[in-house]
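[audit] Reproducing an earlier prediction to check determinism. Same input, same settings, fresh worker. If the tokens differ from the archived copy the diff job will pick it up downstream; this log only records the rerun itself.
[audit] input (374 residues):
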Amino acid sequence: MITELSLPPQQLRGGKMQLRSFSRETLPFLAMITVECTDVGLSVLSKAALNQGMNNFVSVVYCNASGTLILLPYFLFHRNRRPPLTFSLLWRFFLVALIMSSGQIIAYTGIKFSSPTLLSAMANLSPVFTFLLAVIFRFEKLELRRSSGLAKFLGAVIAVTGAFIITLYQGPELLMASSTYSSPTPHRLLDSQQSKWVIGGFLLLLTALSSATWNISQASTVKKYPEEMTIVFFCTLFVAIQAAVFSAIAERNINAWKLSTMVEVLAIICTAIFGSVFRIAVHTWCLRKKGPIYVAMFKPLGMAAAVVLTVIFLGSTLFLGSVIGSIVIALGFYSVIWGQMKERNMAIDIENCSLGSTSKKTPLLQNSQDISSI
């Protein structure tokens, strides 16, 4: 049996470096891909539950309350191991949860009026809005004279243009649902569907903006309190409380709190596990490990999966406007990412050059000290 002591030091060091590389690069990559795929599946399942009568306000309460109950044992049994909580931290958690709860309610309402495909397309605007907010609040400089700054600015404009294309233009049908062949649709119904699509598009636009705000606020919160699961617990707890208040004001009907079908119960359970707990935990962990730009890079992956799932399971129709707008958003998205990555590489090169110059000066200083000592 080979023990750790019997291995050569170089092989031991190489194994540790490979393990660190896996935890630093491969693990966040696999986690983000899993999150994006589960997000699309959850949006399709939520759309099916909303079509059967599930209330969009009440669903947010049930999902986050269930997530809080799932995380409650961890919070109780690890209270002696985590850093102390202060009132300022709890107030920060509450504000982050307020952004999250409003975004979830708007997202459910937007899905109800439109489709998960539109949600996945609009989600690509989240990193663009993150960049715009960072420029507005002077977290990031925009230098249009450099190619990287120009790419970020043009990418933001292109992505927003793509969002308006999806929202305002449907175009001809590419993949038609089976129900569309049954009978011709009256013009009034078409106008009603068009208006609902526009409303849903603007609501999902607001969802992307709230997601960008959440990314910035959550990234700063993790720096102040690097205990991801505790943050997730308080986020789900505060979101459940806030959504309950919103629901009590907006929905007075008691029957709205009843889950009458199995699809609604399944949507609540799956969203609580994979949406309220798993997704927030992975996003918070990756925000600390890799930063908000890395988290945002995986958003376009959900678009293709959303198209396939909505056509197969929901019988939705794929329009030309959705395809064109999604391509335009993806181009703008990657333009912004390219500009940010180029600026980061430039900063790393400058830092390496400064470290190299200081290391070259060090032997001369040592030689002068040796001569003076003689």
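[audit] rerun output stored. Observation attached for the diff report: The chain has twelve helices and two strands.
[audit] end
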